[in-house]
Amino acid sequence: MSWDDFAHYAKAAADWGADYRKTIRDQPVRAQTKPGDIAALLDTSPPETGTGLDRIMADFERVVMPGITHWQHPRFFAYFNSNAAPASVLAEFIAAIIAPQCMLWQTSPAATEMETRMLDWLRQGLGLPRGFQGVIQDSASSATLAAVLTMRERALNFRGNIDGLHGQPQLRIYCSDQVHSSIDRAIWVAGIGQNNLVKIRTTGDLRHMDPMDLEAAIAEDKLAGRVPAGIIAATGATGMGACDDLESVAAVAEEHGLYTHLDAAWAGSAMICPEFRTLWTGAERFDSIVFNPHKWLGAQFDCAAHFLRDPDVLRQTLAIRPEYLKTHGTHDIIDYSEWSTPLGRRFRALKLWFLMRHYGMEGLRNRIRNHVSWSQALCERLRAEDGFEIVTEPILSLWTFRPKSASDEATQTLVDAINDDGRIYLTQGMVDGRKVIRFQAGQFDCEERDFDVAFDTITEIARRA
Ligand SMILES: *Cc1c(COP(=O)(O)O)cnc(C)c1O
């Protein structure tokens, strides 16, 4: 393919993309295909000879698009959104063309220096104090893994990497019973073991871990000769938006000298609005904080912002410097690959620069404020209906409900019927051992009318059931 051909097809793809996103409301949100439908349309072995791009593009529309769940659909109310604001898509497209590998400062100084600056813009946007330094990880899961590895190495005097875990003291890490599965996985991968992740019961409207229980669990472990290594708190956990009381968690951690990590993967974006920051009062006392600009802020996946009060302890855990990765004759540079487990890194800061410059922080705040108020208004409309009960109250734009006195099976049947209908997309969850329907809003371009469609769809389909 010549670069002139590339330009031709890239323009065609841009036109196709703009049409796709402009007419996306006409599509059912969740793919309506059955398992195996798409695989049946794909050849079982690779071609020996090449095919022209016209043909490939046509096949793409025919084969791929029916099996796509439209994550950029304004009525995507399932999971959490994974946004891709147009300005951010442009930056990703450009980054894909330059295709730099940004593992070291010298492998693209612009990427490193922009990353430092963009994370500081985000820090200011969130109202975090000076002193936090940031890095972009590929996912919140990776940031949490980096934090758990730091907890491990710090508690083992940095001997885990050298000696392995055999014969080391039994480490313990604490979190609430509401945390995301990525916490459990980080514990597995770090070799600490599921049984050493102590899940503290949650209480109160925000489902925070009980600080007395946390304190008691740590005291009991110490008495038994186990070694507490860290605490992981959540602001806006996935199930129902649980938020820990960060001041009390930080106080316990400081008393015991434990490393702290805060998972605000979803809710962190909302902290650009000062009025929501009461949900994470005390965040500034944490050692490590992660949030995903690729969720609610609008940056295209993948982009996880990871803030550290002391990057040195993370670097001590992860940095490794063979001769071929050294940069000689410079100092005061950052090699971000020393701050994460993968060596290779994409140019992710560019999309943050495009995003924040194009919309401005005020533009980004307005979107999040609208999502929260439209979602909460929908919650009130459903509450006023006879057939529904609100199970958990809105935390930002997330709340859960179910048909009144419905069995778990009936609740699931309703979610499935709603998603088969296609106008909106919702997911189910469990609250206190019972099935609920989860609603959250955060698609970058959603409008108030999309919430009217949500109300009509939910009430119509429930009535039909
Ligand atoms: C989405 C989410 C994660 C996982 O994020 P990835 O970037 O996909 O790893 C972790 N924690 C919470 C609370 C989340 O909402």
What does the secondary structure layout of this molecule look like, with pairings?
Blueprint: H1 3-22, H2 53-64, H3 86-98, H4 109-126, E1 133-137, H5 140-155, H6 160-163, E2 171-176, H7 181-189, E3 197-200, E4 202-203, E5 208-209, H8 211-223, E6 227-234, H9 246-256, E7 259-263, E8 288-291, H10 293-297, E9 304-308, H11 311-318, H12 349-383, E10 388-395, E11 398-403, H13 408-421, E12 427-431, E13 434-440, H14 448-464
Parallel strand pairs: 2-3, 2-6, 6-7, 7-8
Antiparallel strand pairs: 1-9, 4-5, 8-9, 10-11, 11-13, 12-13
The structure holds pyridoxal-5'-phosphate (PLP).
How would you describe this structure in keywords?
465 residues; alpha/beta; Aspartate Aminotransferase, domain 1; Aspartate Aminotransferase, domain 2; 4-stranded antiparallel β-sheet; 42% helix; binds pyridoxal-5'-phosphate
